[in-house]
């Protein structure tokens, strides 16, 4: 994503385009409902004026019929208000949901073309989060702008024109109401931002300590460690500090807000006095006095809600620029092609560095994986095993060198072409909160095949676990949870269900005990006959079944051979195996 600043007009233009595309009817409905409300508001003012003026005339001896018309008019307006509000409410809700739904769709669609490496760059991740919050909040920001343009501004403008037509000096009244109220509301909103700015950090800290005490994921550990008192103390201290800062910040803010309110009240009083003077000197009628008095509170409410909503709206709209940047970023989708996964895979002088990382995670790797054979990758933590598997699969493009499948270098091709025919079980595999079946079938959604076969292969027996294929694997959604080992088997079953000629397993058995792990790999070997299999393990008991083993150290391959060859070498592999031998002694 580029970091160029984007002009407001461009962002707004795009936002209008997206929300229009999401639902033209809703857009039109929002404009119409706003205009409708502003018209009602204006007619209400006119009716109030007429009613009061005519009432005065009636008091002075005119016929009573004179007030029927304005009363009926006002009644009609009052009756139409709930309808208008309902229309406005529906239009606003739809406008936001439909707009945000469409923008999320664009965002999600674009995400599917992203490269895995883009999620390893913290600035990029931050920008993606902003893009996502833009798609959530921006339509609601635009809704406020539409409301300002088609409700507030027409209302105030029509009132202004109406008053000027009666007497130009009345503009002064509107200005006297408008400017102080606008300033007061702006300051009020600024102060509440300032308050959140000051207090936010302290509040989050206090809430975090509370979470350590009462939330489900912390409870076990806090209970076992006997840390309740510790967190209670942290919470109490933080809460005390919070209260202290809260009161002093609030006091400071209140002081200035009281002064502002006082000034505002003085302004209001002067307007009132000015109006009384106008009535007294015959510039305006009693009716107009009443109408203006009534409209003051209305304008105040409008200004308040507009200014209050504007802060959040602007943040949402400005975050849309991240979404636009993402969508405009002409990402190279890559070519489509059939990349053979049943041929030799070659890594030619491959190096790889994570974004913003200091050194290389992989260094000058040369490796040929023969089709249909199994390769075990071993080595200490952080030696580059997981990274190597991701580069082999094409999830990360090498920063130097190339990965070649058969005779095709992998990097110019699309995600779909690259990953077709590859199955992977990651070290940090995902526990989807879906049913057992969906957890497996998702790796091959167009396939109708039952999941029993895959479950059998990983030795999962559903009745034994007291669950069914449609049981949701999450307590949160009314289902049941599994143990770590069982989850790993489900993840492997998912990998097996996907059609593949290459399967990559990154420590898929860490939660299973070492002896059982050897069994899983043994059955794995049976299943994957004729397929290329790359697996990472830090337990050397399982490596015997591999046709070939490589030992990684600091991003380099330091030993390479069969189990026996490496044993005879008496090098790193031998040492690692010796140190782990006791795991396998019964
Ligand atoms: P292994 O799987 O052998 O434990 P990894 O391949 O996960 O090792 O990590 C190799 C090296 O790359 C380590 O030094 C690790 O700190 C670094 N590394 C891993 N993931 C990232 C990442 N997302 N961003 C930056 N560095 C990373
Ligand atoms: Mg790893």
Automatic annotation (TrEMBL):
Ranges for domain ABC transmembrane type-1: 28-311
Domain of life: Bacteria
UniProt cross-references to InterPro entries, sorted A to Z: AAA+_ATPase, ABC1_TM_dom, ABC1_TM_sf, ABC_transporter-like_ATP-bd, ABC_transporter-like_CS, P-loop_NTPase, Type_1_exporter
Pfam family, one: ABC_tran
GO molecular function: ABC-type transporter activity; ATP binding; ATP hydrolysis activity
Membrane topology: Multi-pass membrane protein
PROSITE patterns membership: ABC_TM1F, ABC_TRANSPORTER_1, ABC_TRANSPORTER_2
A single Gene Ontology CC term: plasma membrane
UniProt keyword terms in alphabetical order: ATP-binding, Membrane, Nucleotide-binding, Transmembrane, Transmembrane helix
Residues annotated as transmembrane: 67-87, 144-163, 169-189, 266-294
Domain spans labelled ABC transporter: 345-579
Main location: membrane
CDD domains membership: ABCC_MRP_Like (cd03228)
Compartments, as annotated in UniProt: Cell membrane
The protein's name: ATP-binding cassette, subfamily B
Taxonomic classification: Bacteria, Bacillati, Bacillota, Clostridia, Eubacteriales
